[in-house]
Amino acid sequence: MTIKRLVRASLRWLGIELRRYIPERDPVYALGALVRGVNPTVFVDAGCNRGQFYREFIMPIHHHWTRTVFIDPIREAVEDVRSRAKDHDVTGEYHACALGAEEGEVQLNISGRETSSSLFRVTEASTARIDDTRVRETRNVQIRRLDRLLGKPGSQDRAFMKLDVQGAENDVLDGAGEWLSYADILRVELSNVELYERQALAPELLHRLWTAGFVIAQVDPGWVDKETGVQLQWDVTVVKSDCLANLMKMRTQ
């Protein structure tokens, strides 16, 4: 065994994977390149939880946003994002509410693993693999349509919307209204199996996005069942087809 293989084997035993850094395989680098090329002006973090995605993916890009919007149905999580934002001089809008096709009040199922909380009931396909996804409490929360929450888009608004809404993707898209036509980038968590009751699965959502004029730009692996090797969830970043065409022209010039 070579020294390199010995070191790798030792690190794997410790739970550490050692790989050569290749920028285009780095999801943060790749997303940054995409954002710089498309140049959206509004970032909407729907299902922001405690701001993990913003800190890991958006802040390192150092992109100028005219508007940054954080939305999550768990009030404590939104207040945590607001508090952390002050430490990084982030000017944002903060909304403690769920998103859907209609406005009113709904029941939120809060899981032991907070990021798995959903308007829909979690299924055994999830709880059998991660026990913390079980519902530990319920509470009533306000639900808003995204278009009414954001208001009328300005003529210069071009949006990057990240949807991490635990099975409610179709409802959120229904409530996006004309903002969907102002979105140049969407990042959506897709499921290959029903982890929440009545959720739309990957084929249905991909067909809807394709029909709306989006094409796949990036795919990031998400949750893989370690026993079967089946990809349960994954994140897809889609862009408007004309944006992709422009990016390809820029690359060949």
State the main characteristics.
253 residues, alpha/beta, Rossmann fold, 7-stranded mixed beta sheet, 3-stranded mixed beta sheet, 9 helices, 32% helix
List the helices and strands and how they pair.
Elements: H1 3-13, H2 27-38, E1 42-46, H3 52-58, E2 67-72, H4 75-87, E3 93-96, E4 98-99, E5 104-111, H5 124-127, E6 135-144, H6 146-150, E7 159-163, H7 169-174, E8 183-191, H8 202-211, E9 214-224, E10 231-240, H9 241-252
Parallel strand pairs: 1-2, 1-7, 2-3, 4-6, 7-8
Antiparallel strand pairs: 5-6, 8-10, 9-10
What does this 3D model show about the protein?
The chain has 253 residues and is of the alpha/beta class. The chain has a single domain (27-225), classed as Rossmann fold (3-Layer(aba) Sandwich), CATH 3.40.50.150. Helices cover 32% and strands 28% of the residues. The chain has helices at 3-13, 27-38, 52-58, 75-87, 124-127, 146-150, 169-174, 202-211, 241-252; strands at 42-46, 67-72, 93-96, 98-99, 104-111, 135-144, 159-163, 183-191, 214-224, 231-240. A seven-stranded mixed β-sheet has the order 3-2-1-7-8-10-9. The protein has a three-stranded mixed β-sheet with strand order 4-6-5. The longest helix has 13 residues, at 75-87. The termini are far apart.
For CATH, the homologous superfamily is named as Vaccinia Virus protein VP39
Please work out how many helical segments DSSP would assign: 9
Silhouette: globular
Compute the number of structural domains.
1
* Straight-line N-to-C gap: 47 Å
Residues in helix, %:
25-40%
Give, in order, the helices and strands.
HHEHEHEEEHEHEHEHEEH
Give the radius of gyration. 19 Å
Strand order in the largest sheet = 3-2-1-7-8-10-9
| Assigned CATH architecture | 3-Layer(aba) Sandwich
Number of strands: 10
Please report the first level of CATH classification, the CATH class: Alpha Beta
Largest sheet: 7 strands, mixed
Q: What's the pLDDT, averaged over the residues? A: 93
Structural class: alpha/beta
| Oligomeric assembly | single chain
In terms of per-residue confidence, which ranges show pLDDT below 50 for 5 or more consecutive residues? Answer: none
CATH topology (fold) name: Rossmann fold
